[in-house]
Fold:
Amino acid sequence: MSSDQETLAWLRLGLIAELTPTGLRKLLAALTTPEGVCAADRATLARVVPDHVAAAIARGPDPERLDAAQRWLEDPANQVVTLADNAYPRLLLEIPDPPPLLYVKGNPALLDHASLAVVGSRNATQQGRSNAEAFSRELSDGGFTIISGLALGIDAAAHAGGLVGLSSSIAVVGTGLDIVYPARNRDLAHRLAEEGALVSEFALGTPALASNFPRRNRLISGLASGCLVVEAALKSGSLITARYALEQGREVFAVPGSIHSSLSKGCHLLIKQGAKLVESSQDILEELGAAVHDRSTTIASADEIALDNPLLAALGFDPIDLDTLCQRSGLTPDTASAMLLTLELEGVVSRLPGGKFQRVR
Amino acid sequence: MSSDQETLAWLRLGLIAELTPTGLRKLLAALTTPEGVCAADRATLARVVPDHVAAAIARGPDPERLDAAQRWLEDPANQVVTLADNAYPRLLLEIPDPPPLLYVKGNPALLDHASLAVVGSRNATQQGRSNAEAFSRELSDGGFTIISGLALGIDAAAHAGGLVGLSSSIAVVGTGLDIVYPARNRDLAHRLAEEGALVSEFALGTPALASNFPRRNRLISGLASGCLVVEAALKSGSLITARYALEQGREVFAVPGSIHSSLSKGCHLLIKQGAKLVESSQDILEELGAAVHDRSTTIASADEIALDNPLLAALGFDPIDLDTLCQRSGLTPDTASAMLLTLELEGVVSRLPGGKFQRVR
Structure:
């Protein structure tokens, strides 16, 4: 994708802890290429970024970490994908703060596949994990790669379901890709590397720092067309991901639960704020316009309904009041009212202002 | 409220099964008073309503039922309230099909009290009944009379909760008021008659007919400012009530539950269609503008927050980007990002387009 020189320059810049994505984007705008940024002197850099950042870039990264990063790249499973690459995920370009550099282990083509984020609590219930796995498997079969954060609980179940389905799964992690966190998900991480992908914006060697995980969440939502929250407490990382999703203009979906479960309170808050309540993967597939379900086979045709219901012959497709309908059909007002209500509930009849009724299909 | 002659005329007309509320309103518009309608001949009546209805009115009601209705009215607990009375419930005048005549047992003043409908399944779960009772007790304490349908399950729990609270409860029933249906709720009906009220639009002696219950539901929603559905299956009577509430411009509230419970599917459907998900009576009281909870005591003042958080001193109330904030505060980008996210989640800091942040309180 990139020349060795360019890749090396990206790796160097990725290892400068003081350099924010925004700062790097500003430098690239001013100095055109990552090689240009690496070659610039401190004074030149300091015209674009604060002086302590310029100093850190001019000083360059720890040589041992740079060596390790170059060795890591020698493994054909590993790659870096940069803002300058065609392989950079299209949806991520739309977020306010796209990382200039992504470390990828596994299949980088998955990064631009239609995808859905599925997230939730580390301390999920058994039912919550089972729901996450089932939704993710069905969504993966429905054409969506499942993106999550490799945490215990809902995340792990979401990855497992995504991997079983047809469209695999991607973990966006909060450490360097040479570290697996949490260690209990080591087997899952290996499966993702072989059948899916792992992605990080953090330099190789970056340990699990609490502060990096919320920041990582913007990529979980940013890579996906929508975000499903399965179980989440109030003030949880999952709600941060959902908030990012909303800011990024992604659909947010939430699974409801008991009003007495603290792990449903986050989902309920999201629904109150406008997230879509979902009961099945079908709800999501329909919302995203990918429904494979053919509704026409489940709705009886107008003729079939008419055969079953004597009222409909008298009703016709024009507005009519109850008295006239009773005259025409010979039914009593009570019977006709009850039948109209049933038909209303079935979506066959619509109640109009002024006490009139109209058949709508 | 009315003269004896007028009351007798209303009672007579209420006993004509063929006469719909719409038909009676048309006749009153044409002939001014119920006495005028009763005195009119068949030909006059037939200019306004279909001939078979005119014939039934001219024939008059079964004398035995009329006698029974007059005897029922002799009990001081019993009354009829008509469209012509000041005591007729104001909210009911707004619905498309207000009943011309209401039979009332108990305290008629409750009919014009602020009220909420609480409805749900007859086959409710223990948890659902417990929720209905708790919501209703708290809403009754919060100033809302609880309206429901005297059915087993959620309805009975709602009445019980409403009666315990400060604002009592009203049952709108689907039979004549001289009949208690279901018989298992006889004790509850007696408590409602003594401490609350029972209301029906159906003539005395009207037995429990399946067709009358859905029609009755429009009065449950129509008498109330909003409708709470606690547990409901798809295609249930509770959904008919909720649909009436929407048509009547009332707020609809629904309690969520497990996606695997058939008794939550009706509530979830309503939420998908725009009903408000509620987790507590407070949610409803706040929505209806009757919140007694003083939020100002639970939100820390700006000064208290600033003392706890070094970032806020550097942040100020103007938009600022992360690099500048790090320069000012001496914090690393990672630490500052994590702190900003926490503050965002607490509603203290807002993220602006272009990667800037602003303190909002």
User: Anything to note?
Assistant: Residues 290-307 of chain A have pLDDT under 50 and may be disordered. Chain A is about 45% helix and 15% strand. Residues 126-141 of chain A form the longest helix (16 residues).
